[in-house]
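To illustrate the input format used throughout this study, we show a single complete record. The first block contains the structure-token representation of the backbone; no residue identities are included at this stage. The design step must infer an amino acid for every position from geometry alone.
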């Protein structure tokens, strides 16, 4: 059986889909699983031993230059790669119009199905129009976590229950050398950045945790993903004697962290 997963971004959402892959392989050990993902995250998906082929897509980059010949050539190359294989099942667990269009572009084997979400869950960016491209739409509870949501879509389509602990099946990256910023002693990491202000934790809470860690001689590392987060990290570091603001990290160094 050939299966295609369309989950293009972002980093956390891609990770949330990993247990779905492990579930499929546990119930169908001989299944071939391919994955369409944004080009920035191909090295992350490559850490999952259950994924056969990774098909990179560059929607974020292409939409900035749709009129250029080079971009159109890249899109044509992506389409050819996507159509190389006929799939028995194509899954879209993102529920967006753009991802459902990619799902529709994939080539189905005879009797194949395109399976996606039937409804939104709390906090998701679901777009109902995506359902027009589905062969099967799977309903999920309003408060279903993203990991269970993806596991449920696959389980309903393939006829099993999404039971047991979530298995992310991610192999640890093996860098040639330890990054210079990585302390030799035990340390703590504060993932303080978030996409929405309403989800941010108050700085005084981070400082309180840092003070408790300082009593245990634990240094604090402050990563960031954009200039605004870097400024926030620098403000926190000024209040934490043992904190270090990390440099900009390539994806695999971020995964190592």
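Output of the design step:
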């Amino acid at each position: 059986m050939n299966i295609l997963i369309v989950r293009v971004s972002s980093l956390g959402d891609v990770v949330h889909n990993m247990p779905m892959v492990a579930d499929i392989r546990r119930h169908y050990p001989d299944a071939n699983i391919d994955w369409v993902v944004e080009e920035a995250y191909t090295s992350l998906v490559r850490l999952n031993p259950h994924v056969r082929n990774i098909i990179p897509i560059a929607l974020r980059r292409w939409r900035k230059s749709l009129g250029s010949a080079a971009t159109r050539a890249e899109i044509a190359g992506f389409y050819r790669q996507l159509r190389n294989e006929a799939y028995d099942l194509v899954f879209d667990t993102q529920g967006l119009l753009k991802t459902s269009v990619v799902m529709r572009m994939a080539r189905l084997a005879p009797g194949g199905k395109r399976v996606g979400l039937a409804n939104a869950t709390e906090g998701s960016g679901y777009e109902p129009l995506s359902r027009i491209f589905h062969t099967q739409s799977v309903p999920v509870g309003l408060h279903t976590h993203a990991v269970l949501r993806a596991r449920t879509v696959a389980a309903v389509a393939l006829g099993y229950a999404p039971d047991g602990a979530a298995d992310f099946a991610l192999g640890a990256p093996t860098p040639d050398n330890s990054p210079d910023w990585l302390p030799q002693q035990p340390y703590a990491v504060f993932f303080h950045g978030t996409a929405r202000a309403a989800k941010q934790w108050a700085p005084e809470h981070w400082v309180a945790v840092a003070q408790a860690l300082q009593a245990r001689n634990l240094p604090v590392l402050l990563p960031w993903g954009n200039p605004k987060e870097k400024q926030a990290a620098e403000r926190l570091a000024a209040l934490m004697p043992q904190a270090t603001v990390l440099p900009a990290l390539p994806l695999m160094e971020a995964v190592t962290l």
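Structural context for interpreting the output: The chain has two domains: 2-158, 188-256. The first helix runs from residue 11 to 16.
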